[in-house]
Amino acid sequence: SKLNGDHIKLAIQKDGRLTEDTRNLLRTVGLHFESYKQRLFSICRNFPMDILYVRDDDIAEYVAEGIVDLGIVGRNLVVESEKPVEEILPLNYGHCSLKVAVPAESGITSIEQLSGCNVATSYPVTTSRFFAERDIDVNVITISGSVEITPALGVATAIVDLVSTGSSLRLNDLVAIDNVLDSQSTIIGNRTSLADKQKAIIIERLLTRFRGVMAASE
Ligand code: ATP
Ligand code: ZN
């Protein structure tokens, strides 16, 4: 099987925190598709859509470039990517917040106290903007993973990291002192696809199903 040119394309996370809930939601809205771990894409059997499995970091760019028409991704990555995509519908799972956190024993209680300090994060764009908007001059250090260990290593005074339950902060003796962004899994779209008459009809049929399921679960 191969990708179909007449189908719309949806990118979802291949293997991560959003994958299972996203697949379940696609099945709940009535889409039939097979998915195997090794697969790069699936073709829906009962809807003119192909599903692409990608790294979540690439989804906003794929949508913005028109490689796919729609994507499902955490809002945190949409904001960080600064790509011109439409946030169409929040999906009420994958809830998390990007928070500023410091070691509990640091005595730091406000972000103003971080002036002149190193702040480690995997979200440098969002973090830099957050501090710049508040006129706090920090040195943002970009780390791709395990950001929460950087204060203990002496690399950073504070971190900006995703928090859901807070267990990872507690495990590392960190406390949150401010909130940068609230996030959840979101359907995003490409403006050109949304303006394409034929695609818009298919996309609207799909979104109607999503809205119905979201309304029923409220
Ligand atoms: P990929 O391999 O696709 O790049 P990843 O490791 O970067 O995956 P995950 O850890 O699977 O990403 O997280 C995917 C998304 O889940 C995040 O971008 C965020 O929107 C959401 N999320 C919800 N809770 C959390 C949390 N506690 N920590 C991190 N992400 C969370
Ligand atoms: Zn990722």
CATH architecture tag of the largest domain: 3-Layer(aba) Sandwich
Estimated helix fraction = 25-40%
In one word, what is the shape? elongated
Helical segment count = 7
| Distance between the ends | 38 Å
Rg from Cα? 19 Å
Keywords: Amino-acid biosynthesis, ATP-binding, Cytoplasm, Glycosyltransferase, Histidine biosynthesis, Magnesium, Metal-binding, Nucleotide-binding, Transferase
Pathway: Amino-acid biosynthesis; L-histidine biosynthesis; L-histidine from 5-phospho-alpha-D-ribose 1-diphosphate: step 1/9
GO molecular function: ATP binding; ATP phosphoribosyltransferase activity; magnesium ion binding
Domain ATP phosphoribosyltransferase catalytic: 55-211
Task: Outline the secondary-structure elements.
Elements: E1 8-13, H1 19-28, E2 41-43, E3 49-54, H2 56-65, E4 70-74, H3 75-81, E5 86-90, E6 96-103, E7 118-121, H4 124-133, E8 139-142, E9 158-163, H5 167-171, E10 174-183, E11 185-189, H6 191-195, H7 197-216
Parallel strand pairs: 1-3, 1-4, 7-8, 7-9
Antiparallel strand pairs: 2-3, 4-11, 5-11, 6-9, 6-10
Bound molecules: adenosine-5'-triphosphate and zinc ion (ZN).
Residues 13, 16-18, 55-57, 74, 76-77, 94, 96, 162, 164, 183 line the site of adenosine-5'-triphosphate.
Features:
alpha/beta, binds adenosine-5'-triphosphate, D-Maltodextrin-Binding Protein, domain 2, binds zinc ion, about 220 residues, about 30% strand, 11 strands
